[in-house]
Every structure is written in structure tokens, then in C-alpha cells.
Amino acid sequence: MNENYDVIVLGTGLTECILSGLLAGEGKRVLHMDRNEFYGGESASLNLSQIYRKFRDGVAAPESYGRDRDYAIDLIPKFMMANGAFVRMLTHCEVTNYLEFRQIAGSYVFRDGAISKVPANEAEAVQSPLMGLFEKRRAKNFFSWIQTYDQDDESTWQGLDITQVTMADVYKHFGLEAGTQDFIGHALALHLNDDYLERPAKETFDKIVLYSLSVLRYGKSPYVYPLYGLGELPQAFARRAALRGATYMLSKPVDALLFDDDGKVTGVQAEGEPAYAPVVICDPSYVPDKVSTGAKVIRAICLLMHPIPNTDDADSAQIIIPQNQVGRTSDIYIAAVSSGHRVCAPGYYVAMVSTVVETDDPNAEIEPALNLLGPIADMFVSIVDLHEPVADGADDHVYVSKSYDATSHFETVCDDVFDLYKRVTGKDLVLKTWEELQQTQAEE
């Protein structure tokens, strides 16, 4: 392995695999290693035996659950916005040929003790129990403003310059009730908490537009999901990177990072062998001395034998429990998929509950979500620290990704990819527009 590379990447989490794919596509000589025997790291999908080895110290799974190969259970819950940056990233990196997707059947929000579908069109909005008659009129005025707003045409602003006013100012202008604000801010804009209220309204405006465009793309819900689990995503990027010359090594423990006298990284040593590169990209687990620990996230993987109640027997769903509905600071997320997504045996469903830990009793914090699931056949709970790099990597050329947060969508992962790419290359990652992607596909 005593060779020189342009970049060494440690860990095959999704963020790292996207970066190696991007850099290999630009002609960089990439070496990509992982201590695990499988792709994905913390974003892997495991079969039934692997799940039991990880969470139950090797206790065998009940035979009644079916065949091992029928399962690909995600360790983190993430869906893709159909019109979001992540789907554009998949297409930009030309990895969609390695993947199959299925739409998530419905998007739901918990309000006033009940699960309600997030309206996907005007007809559903009229019938939705989320708002009363007068509030629906006020909300209609708000969404009409969203649809007609043009930053270059002040006559469309209604006195609200979204780059200057806060989202709290916008809600006040339209007279929207607190429950409606919860629905808009958390179920549509997908904010983690209410901090967004005092930030410029443009941030929330853009998120609502993204949600709306994603719903319009396929109908029913804004989310899509890969067949056979999220573990297919890093593998797809890895396959594409390998075709572009990247070298992959699994089951390769890293002994240490190597540095010169000036403190700049020169490579890594793995199982006694050196490999050299002026740049190292890695997940936080490889450099615990270069990350800070902030919040904790609790995740509960729940195996069900029925669809989640009160979701019209949907085979898949996202349910958001806004913080204010359960007296918290952070939202609680439920992401559910089924055998139709090739992640579990026929007749079974997988629901994952996740949230930021706020108390000394994390298990009690997710009870409001667990109570919505009905009988649970089996449950696997993890509580993990969220890590962030303490430096940007400019001094030592070691660039560290962030941990995966509690959200059930990939937009925050995309933010980290954009940030890492700029730190490593010194330039912005510019994805092709939908029009450019369609033109490329037409030419092919």
C-alpha cells in the first residue's frame, strides 16, 4: 500500500462516499478505506443477523421474522426530498443507474393528539382537520403570497421583504395561529426547532418552496427512498468513484494519521503500512481529538407487523411531532418503510423514531412517538453523540464531516457535503440545474 494519492478518505459513510465520488470524477487519485466490512458506516443498512449482533450481543433473531436476506434495516432514518439538493447530487454524480427508488406514501404531522396528513394539494387542504375555516382562509392568503412572491418585484411583497423581515414577522402579518405556525415551520419547512422564527424569512420561504416543488414532482408526498435501504446510496457513489479510478479497501483498520514537522497531514498508516496524501477526509470516529461533542440523539428502530395506525394503511410515511405539541425544544421524527421497499420480510414494517436528547431519560422522550406505532414486535435503541469538527482543516489538511442529525431527510447532509467540498477544494460545489440535467439525459 506504500503509494502516493491526492486524497485519502476514511470511513464509507454517505458523506465520505459522495466526496470521494466528486473528487475522483475531477481526476483526483483517491484511496478510500473503512475499518468495517460493509459500506455506509453510521448510515449503513444491516441484515437481521447484523442488527442482532450490533444491538443484542449476538443473540439470534427469531426464525419467525423470516430470512436474513429479506432485511436491510437502516441505522439512521433519512428520506430524500424529490426536488432537493440530494437528488440533484445523485444525478450530477451519475449514480442513479445503480439505484431504484420508491415514493414515500404520505407525510403526516401530529397535532392536538392526532395524526393528520400534510395536504399534498388544494383539495386535501380544504378537507384537512389541521385548520378551522377562518384559519384556512388566512393560510390560503399566506400560500398565495408564497406562490406569487418575486424578490425582483416589490409589488408582490405585501410589504414583506423576506431578506429583511423575520419569519415571526410574516406569521404576524398573516395572523396565523400557533398551531398553523407549527405545521408550516416543522412539517413543511422541516425546521428542527423554533429558532428559525427570529431568522430572516427567506430561509423558511425557500424550504417551503422546496417542499411544494417536491410534492408536485410525484404527488402524494415530497419524499423518495431507495429500494434495499440507505446502504445502497454510499455503495452507488463508491461504484461510480471506482470506475473513475478510486481504490477501495474495506476491513482496513487505520492505526494513525501521519504528519510532517509543520503539523500538516502526509497520509495514514493502516495495519502497519503507510499510504501518502496531502489531504485526508474522514468521519469523526477516526479523529476523536479533532471534534467536539454537542447534543445526543436517540434512535429507536421498531419492527412492526402492521402499518402505523391512522395513516390510511400507508406502506411508508414520515410523521413529525412538532416540539410544541409535546412540550419539548426539538421535534420528534418517525420514518416508516415496509417490505415494499425491500427492507424487511413480507408482512413486516420498520419504523424509526429519532430526536435530540433533552433530559436524563431519553427513552421517556420518545414515548409520544412510540405510542403512535401500535404493538411493537421488536425494538433496538441507540443513543449517540453528535460530533462536529473543531477546525476547518485549513491548517493540517484533515477535513472532518459532521455526525448525522436527528432529522429524517437528507438536506442537512447535503449542507455538510457542500461545506466539506469547499473546504477541501477552495471552490463552491455547483450542481447542474434540473434543466441542465434533463438536457444531458436527452443527449444521452
From TrEMBL:
GO terms (molecular function) for this protein are: Rab GDP-dissociation inhibitor activity
SUPFAM superfamilies assigned to the protein according to its UniProt record, in alphabetical order: FAD-linked reductases, C-terminal domain, FAD/NAD(P)-binding domain
* GO terms classed as biological process: protein transport; small GTPase-mediated signal transduction; vesicle-mediated transport
Q: One Pfam family, short name please?
A: GDI
Q: Write down the superkingdom of origin.
A: Eukaryota
Query: Under the cellular component aspect of Gene Ontology, which terms does the record hold?
Result: cytoplasm
The protein's matches in PANTHER family, at most eight in alphabetical order, are given as:
RAB GDP DISSOCIATION INHIBITOR (PTHR11787:SF8), RAB GDP-DISSOCIATION INHIBITOR (PTHR11787)
Family listed? Belongs to the Rab GDI family.
Q: What is this protein called?
A: Rab GDP dissociation inhibitor
The species is Allomyces macrogynus (strain ATCC 38327) (Allomyces javanicus var. macrogynus)
